[in-house]
Amino acid sequence: MVAQETRDRVLDAVRQTGYRPNALARSLRQQESRNLGLVITDLNPFHATLAKGVQDAAEQYDLNVILFTSDESERKERRALETLRSHMPQGLILIPTAHTREHQALLQGLPVVELDRVSGISEAHSVQVDNVGSARSAVQHLTELGHRRIGGIFGHQTVSTATGRLQGYKDALRGAAIPFDPALVQFGDYREASGHEAALHLLSLPANVRPTALFVSSHEMTVGAVLAVRELGVRIPHDVSVVGFDDSRLMQILEPPMTVIAQPTYDLGQAACHTLVSLVRRRAEASVAGTATEPGKKVLLPAPLIVRHSTGPPCDVTTPPSLELST
Amino acid sequence: MVAQETRDRVLDAVRQTGYRPNALARSLRQQESRNLGLVITDLNPFHATLAKGVQDAAEQYDLNVILFTSDESERKERRALETLRSHMPQGLILIPTAHTREHQALLQGLPVVELDRVSGISEAHSVQVDNVGSARSAVQHLTELGHRRIGGIFGHQTVSTATGRLQGYKDALRGAAIPFDPALVQFGDYREASGHEAALHLLSLPANVRPTALFVSSHEMTVGAVLAVRELGVRIPHDVSVVGFDDSRLMQILEPPMTVIAQPTYDLGQAACHTLVSLVRRRAEASVAGTATEPGKKVLLPAPLIVRHSTGPPCDVTTPPSLELST
DNA sequence: ATGAAAGCGCTAACAC
DNA sequence: GTGTTAGCGCTTTCAT
């Protein structure tokens, strides 16, 4: 609602002086920025894909992403949250760590969506993969092939993804009437070396208790496990079947191509952003209408099983692995 | 310089009110934030590693990184630069695109370090890999094995890394007195599909001109090329030697393990950050001393050749590949 | 050693 | 329609 002439005069001045609006001053005045905070635990291919999902979605809402990495460290997470707060973001997307609950105060009043994992703060909104269900379907795939001694390699049980995947493993065993055997379960730190070590241990058990199949619940541990299998001269899937976690070019190219649980990583990031935005919006409305805060919304994305050639019937039940499903 | 009593009184108040300094207001007042802008062209494992290097270094200087992705798009790059400017960063680390030169005005007066590539703005500071030298050593490795028909798969020559690597390829040929043959050179977009296609083309040439070795100048194109080789039923290194680009778990695990040029990706990111900070500091001093602006500083990091098992003597020269170097 | 005031660049509210 | 003003939270300067 400005006269054409004034409009042109202003636009001219803008061009001549090279005027650029200052986002900081704007945010300060409005008490709210066009930023959104994203705190991830590391910057590896998985997290990069998550971040890309978040960024691409954020762009649609004209939001900038301020990225921090906590490296699972309490100090770094605290610093990240403090810094973020002081930048007045609209909200926060956070991969929680073991320390997040101590930092709850830093999140007070800020819309937060927990991504990939869950901190245990019950009101928190979250977007994650169906860890229980996906692990269950992985292990069920193995029981259906006839495996009864199935080794499981999981993350430390301080992280919700790790407890969920262990739960799914147990569920599947129960479903197949196979007793849970703690000797077949190993815990690592989601990194390659620990998967390597765990697989080495499991495959070195005496022949009568040695697992005929392995479910490895993280991408990097899967790589480690496959390398361990190779070192031992054991053949996949003839001597041992392996279901890995997280799909990638590497999993597809391995010899043999791996059967995996494929996380919808990019979608996870996008969903987190969409969830956050709708949360922010509902909040804005609620503050007008004066509605009470609703409980945390939990989004669960399925992670399908992709059957390739690293799984087959156990070799003591014989039937050579001739009729496998192809990709 | 405050009385102890006042100090305590203030600190108490801080605790009770839950006071948090506002970075925005501070930046506005000081006309400078503790932020640094990082604009990358994509968010894949390579760029994630770059970003991690930048972040880790930035942390030492107590700087936050604001990350943007340009996706090589002129619109997105412009938006990223505009947004960044309005956040008053101390400086900018930028992977330039074909459009960066058009956006030079947006960079006016801001310390900028170009990362990985170079835009051609001569005064710009830059941190990159020694593309010419590394490609030269890759191809020289092949000529020394006895190859004379060496296929080259490069990126489009609009990007400095691509021109540099082609240059190195030519240099190495000249050094071995092998004439440059345009028919042996293919150009892709650094992505897997284009590497696949290029390799398919080169390996389908008539036997008398078909290359006995391939130098593939990007990581993803290398994957594509290896897949193409497999599809054709050609054996590496017996029928064709391949030197790939960028090391990774995938390159190490491929059958056979790949000979590659290993970019010091993380270091590249770190170096960019260090360069930027020293640039900012020298600038601050110069503004006091009134010194003239110095020319752009170019940092060149070496990318060593790692010889594994994907390269050997050409098979028409015979001598079976028995005496290879191991990792 | 402490308090007071001005102003960074912006927007919301109000008067003209 | 257009011009003016106050104030977001901080730092710097100046006065006490």
Care to describe what's here?
Chains A, B: It comes from Deinococcus metallilatus. Chains A, B: Residues 1-30 form the HTH lacI-type domain. Two copies of one chain form a homodimer. Chain A has helices at residues 4-17, 23-30, 45-60, 74-85, 104-107, 131-144, 160-175, 192-203, 219-231, 249-253, 265-289, and strands at residues 35-40, 64-69, 91-94, 112-115, 125-129, 150-155, 185-188, 213-216, 241-245, 259-261, 298-301, 305-306. By secondary structure, chain A is of the alpha/beta class. In chain A, helix 3 (45-60) links the parallel strand 1 and strand 2 (64-69). In chain A, helix 6 (131-144) runs parallel beside helix 7 and helix 8 (192-203) packs across helix 9 (219-231). The longest helix of chain A has 25 residues, at 265-289. Chain A is elongated, with a radius of gyration of 24 Å. Chain A starts with a helix and ends in a 21-residue tail after the last strand. The model of chain A is unreliable at 317-324 (pLDDT under 50). Chain A binds a DNA duplex (16 and 16 nucleotides) through helix 2.
